[in-house]
Specification:
Belongs to the phosphohexose mutase family. This protein has 547 residues and is α/β, with parallel strands linked by helices. The protein has three domains: 183 residues, 3-Layer(aba) Sandwich (Alpha-D-Glucose-1,6-Bisphosphate, Chain A, domain 3); 224 residues, 3-Layer(aba) Sandwich (Alpha-D-Glucose-1,6-Bisphosphate, Chain A, domain 3), CATH 3.40.120; 134 residues, TATA-Binding Protein (2-Layer Sandwich), CATH 3.30.310. Helix content is 33%, strand content 25%. The protein has 18 helices and 27 strands. Strands 2-6-5-3-4-9-8 form a seven-stranded mixed β-sheet, sandwiched between helices. Strands 20-21-24-25-26-19-27 form a seven-stranded antiparallel β-sheet. The chain is globular, with a radius of gyration of 23 Å. The model has no long low-confidence stretch (mean pLDDT 95). The structure holds alpha-D-glucose-1-phosphate-6-vanadate and cobalt (II) ion. The site of cobalt (II) ion has 8 residues, from loops.
Length: 547
């Protein structure tokens, strides 16, 4: 059916705050609900990414509150901007890695992903819009800067004057000259996972008694997990819990960490916990891996996957290299060194991995913030990491604890923790970083809390592929004896400021590896506070979240 077509050009007034952060534009739902707020940003995307006429785009989101309304606006605006074809997930659902895969598979011009990831949802929660380019990855800084510039000068947007499109059933419809195709959000992604991992081997291990629990935290991975774990891998019903995406995630933070996936963590630490427990976030790009009585830090997980890549079907021929974000621990570096792989250190955010993956310099990437992935897509991928662990357990017959402990014996152990101070006063947080930055030149050789500072700098990244430079990506304090503290401000929060402090310390000798992370890092934790007078300046007694 061809709908009546009427392209309208609507005048609008620019907003000054549509600057994408670490991962897209993220604000309170109430901000996105302001008249023309969504329209301005979407038109700014269409104005900045090149000629979109006749092109294919992928569209979907994590199903959070406001997702469906924004999908309708985007479809109507895309048609008015002469986009040729949009593939949209059924009911507006697409996980971030699935969207990335679809962009690549169907050679789309780009994609728009609606998510605020691990941030809470609902009418008083958060919403987000992210633009991905044709390689399937998040838009690099030069694109997000162009979108922001456009948003500051926008005076009008284009939209089709038509009724809502039914996105609750599969198939094609038309708005003006644009085809809207509602697609199954799961099948292509599940097929890709089946290509990369040895499903037969995992099935056998499950039949042989391997036990597993997946918590989708009421977010987007539910439908993917039901299909992959319960249907294709034949695991018993109930393996996937909280598997129906809810617009408000059941009132929880869809953030797979020790605090927000607490139930799963408790189960894994109990006598009758399964062999492997895992969770993912709002949009499906994060993963938490917990073995029975063994939490695996995301930094260790990246290193372990890289060290064991050849055990897994999709990576049997080995990997080219690893990239990790700067605050991620150096665990992967020790693997790269020993195995002769490339290793890169990038700023926080997946967008910095795209060039390295496209150029074939690296195969695996990871961030300490529960993000792991490979060159199969251009986003981090929660279910990919979880399937990788299942494949490893099946291939080795070992427990998570055994794999982790043997890894530490071979490569040494990087003790690691991140302390977050959330929703603190923005002025105080900025002042704290500025003050530290102003002292950087004088810190080397001085002592703090009994530790001697060897070197201090403000991390800047020179992209080896396109030569672009990204400055002020986090302050690094290196200590004599190998410890490191990193201070940076979050670029995904929507209220006040969030200060993140990352601490790590490497111990090579297995006999000196004690099991309590917070104790092993106690001296650095004290130093992190003393160096900037942290708790006093932020007015807090303790971090909001420790991972
Ligand atoms: C956080 C993490 C970062 C991650 C980003 C997006 O950013 O630290 O590693 O890439 O979230 O993840 P920040 O700027 O708040 O530290 V997600 O799952 O929101 O797409
Ligand atoms: Co996410």
């Amino acid at each position: 059916m061809v709908m009546d077509m009427a392209i309208q050009t609507i005048s609008t007034t620019a907003f000054d705050d549509q600057n994408p952060g670490t991962s897209g534009l993220r604000k309170k739902v109430k901000v996105f609900q302001k008249p023309n707020y969504v329209e301005n940003f979407i038109q700014s995307i269409f104005n900045s990414v090149g000629d979109v006429s006749g092109k294919l785009f992928i569209l979907g989101g994590d199903g959070r509150f406001f997702n469906k309304e924004v999908i309708q606006k985007i479809l109507k605006m895309a048609a008015a901007n002469k986009v040729g074809h949009i593939k949209v997930g059924l009911n507006g659902i697409l996980s971030t890695p699935a969207a990335s895969h679809l962009i690549r598979k169907y050679k789309a011009f780009g994609g728009i992903i609606l998510s605020a990831s691990h941030n809470p949802g609902g009418p008083s929660g958060d919403f987000g819009i992210k633009y991905n380019i044709s390689n399937g990855g998040p838009a690099p800084e030069k694109v997000t800067k162009a979108i922001f510039e456009s948003s500051k000068n926008i005076t009008s947007y284009k939209i089709e004057d038509c009724g809502d499109i039914d996105i609750a059933k599969l198939g094609k419809t038309q708005i003006g000259s644009m085809v809207v195709e509602v697609i199954d959000p799961v099948v292509d992604y599940a097929n890709l996972m089946e290509e990369l991992f040895d499903f037969d081997l995992i099935r056998k291990a499950i039949a042989g008694g391997l036990t597993f629990r997946f918590d989708a935290l009421n977010a987007v991975t539910g439908p993917y997990a039901h299909e992959i774990f319960e249907k294709r891998l034949g695991m018993k019903k109930g393996t996937v819990v909280n598997g129906t995406p809810l617009p408000d995630f059941g009132g929880r933070h869809p953030d797979p960490n020790l605090v927000h996936a607490h139930d799963l963590y408790e189960l894994m630490m109990s006598e009758d916990g399964p062999d492997l427990g895992a969770a993912s976030d709002g949009d499906g790009d994060r993963n938490m891996i917990v073995g029975w009585k063994r939490f695996v830090t995301p930094s260790d997980s990246l290193a372990i996957l890289a060290a064991n890549a050849k055990l897994v079907k999709g990576y049997r021929n080995g990997i080219a290299g690893i990239a990790r974000s700067m605050p991620t621990s150096a665990a992967a570096d020790y693997v790269a060194k020993k195995l002769g792989l490339n290793i890169y250190e990038t700023p926080t955010g997946w967008k910095f991995f795209g060039n390295l993956l496209d150029a074939g310099k690296v195969t695996f990437c990871g961030e300490e913030s529960f993000g792991t992935g490979s060159n199969h897509v251009r986003e981090k991928d929660g279910l990919w990491a979880i399937l990788f662990w299942l494949n490893l357990l099946a291939a080795t017959g070992k427990s998570v604890s055994e794999i982790v402990e043997q890894h530490w014996q071979l490569f040494g152990r990087s003790y690691y923790t991140r302390h977050d101070y959330e929703e603190v006063d923005q002025t105080a947080a900025k002042a704290l970083i500025e003050d530290l930055r102003s002292r950087l030149g004088k810190l080397a050789g001085t002592d703090v809390a009994g530790l001697t500072i060897a070197k201090a700098d403000d991390f800047s990244y020179h992209d080896p592929i396109d030569g672009s430079v990204s400055e002020h990506q986090g302050i690094r304090i290196f200590f004599e004896g190998g410890g490191r503290i990193v201070y940076r401000l979050s670029g995904t929060g929507t209220a006040g400021a969030t200060v993140r402090i990352y601490m790590e310390h490497y111990v090579a000798d297995p006999l000196k590896q004690d099991d309590n992370t917070q104790e092993a890092l106690a001296a650095l934790i004290v130093a992190a506070d003393e160096l900037v007078d942290l708790k006093k300046k932020l007015g807090r007694d303790a971090p909001s979240v420790i991972t």
